Amino acid sequence: MTLSELREDIAVLGGKAYLASQIYSWLHRQLVSSFDEMTNVSKAIREKLSGFYTISDCTIEKKLVSVYDGTVKYLFKLNDGEFIESVVMKYKYGYTICVSSQVGCKMGCRFCASGIAGFVRNLLPGEILSQVYTAQKDMNIRISHVVMMGVGEPLDNFDNVMRFLELISNEDGQNIGMRNISLSTCGVVSGIYKLLEKKLQLTLSISLHAPSDEIRNSTMPVNSKWNIDTLLTACRDYIEATGRRISFEYAMISGVNDSDECARLLSAKLKGMLCHVNLIPVNSVKERGYVKSSNERMKAFISILEKNRINVTVRRTLGSDINASCGQLRRGVKESSTD
Ligand code: SAH
Fold first, then answer.
1. What is the mean pLDDT of residues 65-83?
2. Quick check: 154 and 106 in contact, CB under 8 A?
3. Does any ligand 1 atom lie closer than 6 A to the CB of residue 151?
4. Is the pLDDT at 57 greater than 90, yes or no?
5. Ligand 1 pocket member 249 (CB < 6 A)
6. With the CA atoms of 11, 14, 20 and 26 taken in that order, what torsion angle do they form, in degrees rounded to the nearest 10?
7. Is any ligand 1 atom within 6 A of the Cβ of residue 280?
8. How far is the CA of 31 from the centre of ligand 1 (A)?
9. Mean of pLDDT values over 204-212
10. pLDDT at 331
11. Whole-model pTM?
């Protein structure tokens, strides 16, 4: 609930207005997981609250810490017994959490592990929030950045994701600025237009991964609904409406999308756009046969993009020993990495 919704409900329960602010602060600043911890709230009100409401919470089922770089992967258990994953990474500027937006995924990208077990359900706003809060409490850190790049397609769970963004950025809560938040989509064009209307200052990332419909159709089923030109038109409209630079994710898959020709095509498609390309050597997923491009191939690809004045960087791989890297997250205790 937002603070104003909480105020309305507290008024109905017979509480004073400041009580709503106190409860909001317990939930979103002190990060309590039960009403009994709200020590400055009267017992009578706490009892009423426990009768009418539940606090979305998740418990740590498993925690893996990378020996290489300290990246932490959590397997969280939700109240209904479903599992989700989140990853916390340490950068020079602070801690970033990568959160999931759904249990499983419908999108079926061929190189990604998230959808292997299918789609189960959307996450509620509180369940997305509780990934951040539980990790913060467990690691005793402040998280300064959020990326919606875990399991699930955020724009396929639009309303809950918008409410999560409102809560996480609220100044009476964790107050994480929109400029410290990234949202990634595989290219749900209807959702991009809905997001555009909100004019948020977050960074929109697009999982492009191919320069032509022929290649993208073979790796990303979403492309048959919204093809590359439709997607890039939406991106241009988005940039015009928000003034924000878009980030394109491009997983380099050997022999699939990493040729010189692909680099030229990509440059032509993105020409003149306020954007940035983030290359990711594709991560191996046991069930998927794709192999990452060699360093030489990456270099050749980058030099063509640079010649065409496209901003390009290579994403650092973190948490590779705990299967925490892009596209390796998946639900299920048995299926999660144990090595
Ligand atoms: N559904 C959203 C959010 C997930 S973000 C989206 O698709 O953008 C996860 C990112 O990791 C996406 O860019 C996805 O395409 C990428 N990814 C998936 N599998 C990968 C793999 N095996 N190697 C590298 N990146 C991968």
1. 94
2. no
3. no
4. no
5. yes
6. -150
7. yes
8. 30
9. 98
10. 59
11. 0.95
- Nearest CA residue ID for atom 12, ligand 1: 207
Ligand 1 centroid – CA 43 distance (Å): 47
How far is ligand 1, taken at its centre, from the CA of residue 98, in Å? 12
- 44 sits in which H/E element: helix 43-52
Give the residue carrying structure tokens 């997923």. Answer: 285
Is residue 17 within a helix (H) or strand (E), and if so which, with residue range? helix 17-28
DSSP code per residue over 187-224: --HHHHHHHHHHT--SEEEEE---SSHHHHHHH-GGGG
C-beta of 184 in contact with ligand 1 (< 6 A): yes
Amino acid at 77: K
Cα–Cα distances (Å) from 43 to 5, 37, 40, 50, 229, in that order, read 22, 11, 9, 10, 59
Cα–Cα distance for residue pair 259/223, rounded to 1 Å: 20
Mean pLDDT within 158-165: 98
Quick check: CB of 279 below 6 Å from ligand 1?
Answer: no
- Residue 57's nearest CA partner among 131, 6, 122, 123 is 131
Give Cα 125 to chain centroid, integer Å: 13
Per-residue pLDDT of 214-225, as tens digits, reads: 999 999 999 999
Nearest ligand 1 atom, CA 282: 23
Looking from the CA of residue 288, the nearest atom of ligand 1 is: 22
Structural contact between residues 101 and 148, judged by C-beta atoms closer than 8 angstroms: yes
DSSP secondary structure, 84-145, as one string: EEEEEEEETTEEEEE--SEEE-SS--TT-STTTT-EEEEPPHHHHHHHHHHHHHHHT--EEE
Centroid of ligand 1 to alpha carbon of 297 (angstroms): 21
Would you say 186 and 149 are in contact if contact means Cβ atoms under 8 Å apart? Answer: no
Our answer to whether residue 85 is catalytic in this structure is yes
- Which tens digit of pLDDT belongs to each residue from 239-257? 999 999 999 999 999 999 9
Per the DSSP assignment, residues forming a β-bridge with 94 are: 91
Beta strand 72-77 with 275-281: parallel, antiparallel or unpaired?
unpaired
Residue of 98, 109, 112, 326 marked catalytic: 326
Q: 257 CB under 6 A from ligand 1?
A: no
User: What stretch of H or E contains 306?
Assistant: helix 295-307
332, pLDDT greater than 80: no
